[in-house]
Design brief:
Number of strands: 0
Number of helices: 6
Largest sheet: none
Oligomer: single chain
Helix content: over 70%
Shape: rod-shaped
Length: 191
């Protein structure tokens, strides 16, 4: 009888330690997933900041180009529409789609500038073009950082046994920022 109580006591201690280890693992895993998800949100905020900077620069660039290229109204209309789409987008996916469309149009806008030698010599235009080029580089860097954070998060929520806790607490995969179909081809501008 005494031996049974002693064995039971050790089994209960072992079970208690196991439960404590599982709880510690669960809390640690949950906190890690929260940190990864927060990292994704932070990286996306950085992407949005750079897109906002781009959107703020574009009207100035458009105004400068308009003075030289009045017949390119369709291009300016597209820019205005895409800026509105960006401003009204409510989800990350909607903002990604608007940003990709804007990238294509900005490329065309910069190509239009190549057709106007006087415009290329204009100091305001050159300054704005440099700012936009710098912003495009910042956007590329921030999108890369965002994708890295999304990859780390998505991998973490799919690994065993973390996937069990991720599913229980509703951690969902995040969308990567991917290039548009045909982005590898340079846009063409016709007059």
């Amino acid at each position: 009888m005494k031996q049974q109580k002693s064995n039971l006591k050790w089994w209960l201690i072992g079970a208690g330690v196991l439960i404590l280890v599982l709880i510690a693992f669960g809390v640690g895993t949950y906190n890690r997933l929260i940190a990864l998800e927060g990292g994704v949100a932070e990286k996306w905020a950085n992407v949005e900041t750079q897109y906002q900077r781009r959107i703020d620069l574009i009207p100035n660039l458009v105004s400068t180009v308009k003075g030289y290229a009045t017949h390119e109204r369709d291009l300016f209309t597209q820019i205005t529409e895409l800026r509105s789409q960006w401003a009204n987008a409510k989800t990350v996916d909607a903002k990604i789609n608007a940003a990709q469309g804007l990238e294509s149009v900005v490329s065309k806008l910069l190509m239009v500038s190549e057709a106007y030698p006087q415009l290329k010599a204009n100091e305001n235009f050159l300054s704005l073009q440099d700012e936009l080029a710098g912003t495009e580089n910042r956007v590329a860097v921030e999108r890369t950082r965002y994708n890295e954070a999304v990859l780390a998060y998505n991998v973490a929520i799919k690994r065993v046994p973390t996937n069990l806790l991720a599913g229980m607490f509703g951690f969902e995969p995040k969308s990567m920022f991917e290039a548009q179909a045909g982005a590898e081809k340079a846009p063409t501008v016709t007059f």
